[in-house]
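quick one before i forget lol
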Amino acid sequence: MKKSTIVRSILAWGIYIMYIVFTALAILRAYTYRTEDGQLGAEIFRYFTNDSAILCAVTCIPAMFYMLVLKGGRAARMPAWILILRYIGTVCVTLTMGTVLAYLGPLYGYEYMFAGEDLFLHLVGPVLMIFTFIFLESDRPLLRKYTWTALIPIQIYAIYYIHNVLVISKKKGRWPDFYAFNTNNRWYVSLLFMLIITYLIGLILRVLHNTMYLARHRS
């Protein structure tokens, strides 16, 4: 195995471990955080930030196992299904970071959005995952037909969010529109916009990943 491959595997494994650990700590801290109304608890899972971070951390597990165990002493390509999972997880946390930087930061204030564990969930973690997907997991190209898979989590979350904000009654625990996606009752515009943005993020990440793959195999 080339020395560069060994270094890349070790670096990727270290980032996986760090991301999983820091995500677990951030989620635990958020879960046990106590407000004037009591502990937040399961309420934290209504936020896409936390859901996307957990999903991304889960996708790191098979990738880490591949890097550490399955790869052994030879250079082998990451299995396609693991790469697709990593792609989906990375797109989700990139969407989180982009939404905070371009929308929620100006809306609620960057100081608030990057306070405490949110600094990792909103910025540091996504940057690490982007770096890993583009530079460390580029031993296999991601086919164009898999770009649409990046939309699956956001579609599921959209149904979850719309149902709890618009469909259920206040007596059953209706959520406040904390993302302000239903401003002027135009939730459908927000949904379409987020789907387009997610697809574009996925497209850009796929292109950068494949560009690095080509560059590595030409050298």
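fyi The radius of gyration is 19 Å.
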